Amino acid sequence: MERPQLNQHTDLASYFRAMAEFRRHLDPSFSVASASRGEYRCSPALVSLVLSGKRHLTLDRLGSFCHIFGLNPKERLQVKMMLQGATPAIETPTEVNLKQTGHRRRVSSSLLKDWLNPYVKDAIRLESVRRTGLRAMFIELANIASERRIERATLRVSIE
After folding, report:
1. Phi/psi at 42 (nearest 5 deg)?
2. pLDDT digit string (tens) for 22-55?
3. Contact yes or no for 12/82 (Cβ under 8 A)
4. Where are the domains of the chain?
5. Buried b (16+ CB within 10 A) or exposed e, 29-51
6. Using CA atoms, how far apart are residues 33 and 23, in angstroms rounded to an integer?
7. Those residues with Cβ within 8 angstroms of residue 147's Cβ, 6 or more apart along the chain or in another chain
8. At a CB cut-off of 8 Å and minimum separation 6, what does 11 contact?
9. CA separation (Å) from 81 to 13, 58, 59, 115, 128?
10. Percent with pLDDT over 90 in the chain
């Protein structure tokens, strides 16, 4: 069973009914009563009335409904926009293969995994380090790390 999409439903009640079925499919022990137990000002009776279409969902109860039915941030925004009457439901974006487009470069965050790496990267740019080499870097960074740690960070930074 696929996750329901808001743009495939005519109203919020049918969307939330489909989400309830989806949640029951994923977790057979799911019930509206148990899921709404901890929610403030959102009783199981209110949820049932909204699901049956006898009551309308309001913005002040939106957060509770999103939590009960496990909506992701994109779905929350779509429901909120639909409640506000701003626009109809947003179409599901098609997946774009970034390797085919070639517009985006892969970025690595490994440089920031060790707190010392940015200091080493900046120290490499110093004129004294450029002239005398690794020994000057040990002198510049001696107050914050041992020579062994600086040497390891230098190897990591030079690989990046």
Report:
1. -145, 85
2. 999 999 999 988 888 878 888 899 999 999 999 9
3. yes
4. 6-84, 110-159
5. ebebeebbeebeebebebbeebb
6. 13
7. 138
8. 53
9. 15, 12, 10, 42, 58
10. 21
Place of tokens 């079925």: 21
Helix (H, G, I), strand (E, B) or coil at 109: coil
- Extract the tokens encoding 35: 């899921």
Count of CB atoms situated within 10 Å of the CB of 141? 21
pTM given for the model: 0.53
- Give CA–CA dist 30/35, Å, rounded: 7
Q: Which two tokens stand for residue 151?
A: 């040497």
pLDDT of residue 98: 44
Residues 6 or more apart whose Cβ sits within 8 Å of residue 87: 81
CATH value of 6-84 in 1.10.101, 1.10.3470, 2.60.40, 1.10.260: 1.10.260
